[in-house]
Amino acid sequence: MIKALNPVFISGKEVFPLVEGGKGIAVSNGESSGAWAAAGGVGTFSAVNADAHDENGDLLPIVYHGKTRRERHDELINFSIKGGITQARIAHEASNGNGRIHMNVLWEMGAVEPILHGVLSQTKGLVHGVTCGAGMPYKLAEICTHYGVYYYPIVSSARAFKILWKRAYNKFSDGLGGVVYEDPWLAGGHNGISNSEDPLKPEPPLQRVIDLRSAMRECGLDNTPIFMAGGVWALSEWEDWLDNPAIGPISFQFGTRPLLTQESPISGAWKKKLLTLKEGDIYLNRFSPTGFYSSAVRNDFLGDLHGRATRQVAYSISPIGDHEAPFPVGARGRLVYLTPHDKEHAEAWVKAGYISAMRTPDSTLIFVTPEKENEILRDQINCMGCLSACMFSNWAQNDEGTTGKKADPRSFCIQKTLQEISHGDDVDNELMFAGHQAYRFAKDPFYANGFVPTVKQLVERLQTGL
Question: Which fold has domain 8-275+438-463?
Answer without folding.
Answer: TIM Barrel (3.20.20)
